[in-house]
């Protein structure tokens, strides 16, 4: 057997017991629920299937405009012209901010028009203002989605207007939401705006369609969607305490069902899962064997507090393995990455965390090194 081997030891994590977590039952055809704080997928029902996203795909158009703002290509007071194509969406009966020929809406107006009014006209103005045409903007949307790691997203237009080439998965919509929240902290609060009425033209369409704003504590985004093909869907985010969740779903039969589903998902995510600090930074998780060192072992510790999201009632079923390749040859510097703590959580999969050397370990003295060498020779050659 080799002197160096891959070692694993079972670690018991002390956690509090609770009532068992309940599985979430949903009528939605596609669902993805994610805890941002712990990077844990809570629910995945056909989450990677590319489906018609309806107006939820406006999040990609909004991201493109946010990116242009971040790069200083446009400012909040930059104005765009309004084309005949943009105005035509009002006549076609889709969602609109009621733009007219001759208007010069600002970027700030258009952000509100896309988010609060879900304006197809606003999206077209943004597309033409940034890239010259709807077609070129859609191509850039698809390209941009790939750079963001959205693997199941393609775009034919900026608004989500029905088109067989307009597709996104619920996971992609969720991860796009995570990106909007983290990459644009100064712009993201726009999603919590409840009302916008451009030039007082449409009081009946002035309210944000997000059904959980002001209803679910901590709800602050993001976007609803509906077409005949897609059904009723929504991308949402809720922050309560130290946790934030994002979710995306589609395929419901009414806006009333959508509102109930969004609230139910938020309640389930926060009531049936809890965040626990399972190991604190500096705590010794295990002792790793050392070869040719002035100490026989070195303590392994995480670099920071380790927080886990646990299903209620699953605490007693959580286990962990400490894995490292050892014995570890000296010298060892404090803080060196030596192994992994792999935590097994029922129904949520494994999570891996780096383990570091808690102390320096120097090279053993001559006598110790000689004794170890002789012991090795005796073992290998039967001396």
List keywords for this structure.
383 residues, alpha+beta, Peptidoglycan synthesis regulatory factor (PBP3), Domain 2, Beta-lactamase, 2 domains, five-stranded antiparallel β-sheet, elongated, disordered N terminus
Structure, explained:
This protein is of the alpha+beta class and 383 residues long. The chain has 2 domains: 5-16 and 277-381, Peptidoglycan synthesis regulatory factor (PBP3), Domain 2 (Sandwich), CATH 2.60.410; 30-252, Beta-lactamase. Helices cover 27% and strands 26% of the residues. The protein has 8 helices and 14 strands. It has helices at residues 58-70, 84-91, 107-115, 120-131, 134-147, 170-183, 255-271, 366-381; strands spanning 5-11, 30-35, 40-45, 219-227, 231-240, 243-252, 273-279, 286-291, 297-301, 306-311, 319-326, 328-329, 337-345, 349-357. The strands form 3 sheets. The protein has a 7-stranded mixed sheet, with no helix packed on it. The protein has a 5-stranded antiparallel sheet with strand order 3-2-6-5-4, with helices on both faces. A two-stranded antiparallel ribbon has the order 7-10. α1 crosses α4 and α4 (120-131) packs across α5. Residues 1-6 and 10-21 have low confidence and may be disordered.
Helical fraction equals 25-40%
What's the helix-strand series? EEEHHHHHHEEEHEEEEEEEEH
| Annotated CATH topology of the largest domain | Beta-lactamase
Strand order of the largest sheet: 1-11-13-14-9-8-12
Instruction: Quickly name the level 1 CATH class of the largest domain.
Output: Alpha Beta
The low-confidence parts are 1-6, 10-21
Output the radius of gyration: 27 Å
**In total, how many beta strands?**
14
Count of individual domains: 2
Going by helix content, strand content and strand pairing, the class is alpha+beta
Overall average pLDDT: 88
Main β-sheet description: 7 strands, mixed
- Name of the CATH homologous superfamily of the largest domain: DD-peptidase/beta-lactamase superfamily
Per the principal axes of the C-alpha atoms, what is the gross shape? elongated
Q: From the coordinates shown, what is the CATH architecture of the largest domain?
A: 3-Layer(aba) Sandwich
Number of helices: 8
Distance between the amino and carboxyl termini:
17 Å
Beta content comes to: 25-35%
């Amino acid at each position: 057997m080799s002197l160096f081997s891959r070692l694993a030891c079972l670690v018991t994590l002390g956690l509090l017991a609770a009532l068992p977590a309940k599985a979430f039952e949903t009528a939605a055809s596609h669902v993805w629920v994610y805890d941002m704080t712990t990077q844990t997928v809570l629910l995945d029902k056909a989450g990677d299937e590319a489906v018609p996203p309806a107006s939820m795909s406006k999040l990609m158009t909004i991201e493109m405009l946010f990116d242009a703002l971040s790069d200083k290509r446009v400012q909040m007071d930059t104005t765009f012209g309004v084309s005949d194509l943009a105005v035509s969406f009002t006549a076609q009966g889709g969602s609109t901010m009621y733009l007219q020929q001759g208007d010069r809406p600002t970027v700030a107006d258009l952000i509100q028009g896309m988010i609060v009014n879900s304006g197809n006209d606003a999206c077209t103005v943004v597309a033409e203002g940034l890239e010259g045409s709807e077609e070129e903007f859609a191509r850039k949307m698809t390209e941009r989605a790939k750079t963001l790691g959205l693997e199941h997203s393609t775009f034919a237009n900026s608004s989500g207007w029905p088109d067989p080439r307009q597709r996104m998965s619920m996971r992609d919509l969720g991860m796009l939401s995570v990106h909007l929240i983290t990459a644009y902290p100064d712009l993201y609060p726009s999603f919590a705006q409840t009302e916008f009425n451009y030039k007082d033209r449409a009081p009946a369409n002035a309210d944000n369609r997000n059904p959980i704003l002001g209803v679910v504590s901590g709800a602050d985004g993001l976007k609803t969607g509906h077409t005949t093909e897609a059904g009723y869907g929504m991308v949402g985010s809720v922050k309560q305490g130290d946790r934030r969740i994002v979710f995306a779903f589609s395929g419901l039969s009414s806006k009333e069902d959508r509102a109930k589903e969004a609230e139910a998902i938020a309640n389930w995510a926060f009531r049936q899962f809890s965040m626990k600090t399972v190991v604190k930074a500096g705590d010794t998780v295990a002792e790793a064997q050392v070869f040719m060192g002035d100490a026989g072992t070195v303590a392994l510790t995480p670099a920071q507090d380790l927080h886990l999201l646990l299903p209620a009632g699953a605490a007693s079923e959580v286990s962990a393995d400490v894995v490292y390749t050892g014995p570890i040859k000296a010298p060892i510097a404090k803080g060196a990455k030596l192994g992994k703590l792999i935590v097994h959580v029922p129904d949520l999969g494994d999570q891996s965390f780096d383990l570091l050397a808690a102390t320096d370990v120097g090279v053993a003295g001559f006598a110790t090194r000689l004794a170890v060498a002789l012991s090795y020779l005796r073992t290998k050659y039967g001396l």
